[in-house]
Design goal:
7-stranded mixed sheet; disordered N terminus; alpha/beta; 7 helices; binds fe (ii) ion; about 325 residues; 13 strands
Length: about 325
């Protein structure tokens, strides 16, 4: 069993919320969805299903590199519009900014900067132009965490671009997006059916998602799938593990054998997802940093997580269910 000892950054929760309290909680998210901040990198997303035909969608994204001229902003917009249509919740775990074109950066190149960022207040412009782009979708964003491109800016230039963007989006739209950590948890908690005012109904199903922006090199042959074996050992409570950073894409299930207190043996699964992001830097392979270092072409996109409620008489597929598909 995992050690249940709390870390110093985790606040103690007083009691689980009743469905009435959940519905009344203030939240900017669409549909029957509400969010609670438990600590700086633990967020609960609560959703109530009213029928078995209803879907609850989550868009999992990383590595937008939004300000990079090679960012496929058209694809970003397509997925954001789909998220709006589906009342989806968006969780983004870093490298939303590229932020490599300041005059302070030796890697800066005059060919690699968008015209809207060619000004003396480069970092301010990154935040204001990103706010303009994401503001129509602010109600769909739940959590935004930093990647190494944002933490590098904090380290060298003492500004947290993730916090600045969240702050500005919240100020300009009234949304209540939360910043997350470089790694953190989103616990999805579910209820089914009508609420009975005054009657306490505890959460009827939950799924734990652990995100980490990612680390390490490109791993051109294994694509980083070896990390799933390590993470499966030290993140035992996650049903879903999401990472980005290498701009690879895969869905990698790890099936485990378990036993109940009654002695019943069963299998469960930890699902590892690598989201590719939106930067297209190979193109025709003519040249550039990525080509010169032998970088391969990379996929673009994100992942859709769809939840639904099943009333099947088969216990194995009863209650909260989910599947993952590629956002293309
Ligand atoms: Fe990245
Ligand atoms: Fe990264």
């Amino acid at each position: 069993m995992p050690n249940k000892k709390k870390t110093s950054t985790t606040k103690k929760t007083t009691k689980s919320k009743t469905t009435t309290e959940v519905d009344e909680a203030k939240s900017h998210l669409p549909g029957n969805t509400h969010m609670e901040e438990i600590s700086r990198n633990v967020h609960f997303i609560n959703h109530r299903f009213h029928s078995t035909t209803e879907n609850f969608w989550v868009l999992l994204t990383s590595d937008r590199h939004h300000d990079n001229p090679h960012c496929n902003q058209e694809l970003e917009k397509k997925h954001l519009d789909e998220a709006k249509e589906r009342n989806a919740v968006i969780i983004d775990y870093g490298d939303l900014f590229c932020a490599m074109q300041g005059k302070f950066d030796r890697r800066a190149s005059k060919d690699d900067i968008r015209p809207e960022h060619q000004s003396g207040n480069y970092l301010d412009k990154l935040v204001s132009t990103a706010t303009d782009f994401y503001a129509p979708y602010a109600d769909n964003f739940a959590v935004m965490g930093p990647g190494n491109h944002e933490t590098a800016m904090l380290k060298h230039h003492e500004t947290n671009l993730t916090e600045r963007l969240v702050e500005r989006l919240n100020m300009s739209t009234g949304s209540q997006i939360k910043t997350g950590g470089y790694s953190g948890w989103v616990k999805f908690k579910f209820w089914y059916g009508k609420d009975s005012p005054g009657v306490e109904r505890k959460c009827e199903g939950s799924v734990n998602l652990w995100y980490h922006h990612g680390y390490g090199g490109d791993a051109p042959v294994t694509k980083g799938t070896i990390q799933t074996g390590r993470q499966a050992v030290y993140v035992p409570d996650a049903h879903i593990v999401c990472t980005g950073h290498t701009h690879n894409e895969w869905i990698f299930p790890i099936t485990r054998i378990r036993i109940k207190d009654s002695g019943l043996i069963y299998h469960d699964e930890q699902l590892h997802l690598k989201t590719p992001g939106y930067k297209e830097e190979y193109e025709d392979g003519y040249g550039g940093w990525h080509i010169e270092r032998g970088g391969p072409p990379k996929p673009n996109g994100a992942m859709w997580l769809r939840f639904w409620w099943s009333k099947s008489t088969n216990n194995a597929i009863r209650g909260i269910q989910y599947e993952v598909t590629r956002a293309k």
